[in-house]
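Many introductory courses stop at the sequence. We go one step further.
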Amino acid sequence: MNYIKQLNAAFQLIVEDSRLNATHVSLYMALFQLWNITRFAKVFYINRQEVMQLCKIGSKSTYHRCLTDLTNWKYIEYLPSHNMYKGSEVRMSIFGTTSGQAKANHETSTEQGLVSNINSNKQKENNSKPKLPKNENEVIDFFKSKKWPPMEGLKFYNHYQAIGWKQGGKIKIVDWTASASNWMQKAKQIETAKEQSHFKDNLRTTKIKDYDEPL
């Protein structure tokens, strides 16, 4: 019995069957798990408390109603036991064993899923890979293209090369050109602040003047 084929076929039936609700599905999956533990025996025995705990159904009446429904709808065959020392019998219906088309659809979807996951993983790796300069010349050329002196580009390169290309010494730089643009912007702000400070100093005077005297 093919585990994957059986489970896929069962899920396909569950999706298409409007009679089923969440408790039916939960109970079926609990029985499927117990069936799996018995290595898909033709018949296996269940304990009500164990199954109710596994499928998270708290009401005995709901539990027995769902068992009856699944039996009537041919998902399982439930043979209750009134002997407290002997569990009730369950036979699971086997789905999708004769459908070659179902197998082909499953294999196709699996291949598509693998290709999609591989491409997605590659894209994530490419996006997360830090974009760092090859050498200082690349940085200097970038600064030149922005009309900045080569020395400023060298300062930028040496600074981040020394700290392992991390922003604030902690966060890895993903795109060095963006960091370089921020560097230029901060340098421009610092230069502007210096000019304004120098201008203010020129207006200051410590000499006490008597403006009543003629010039």
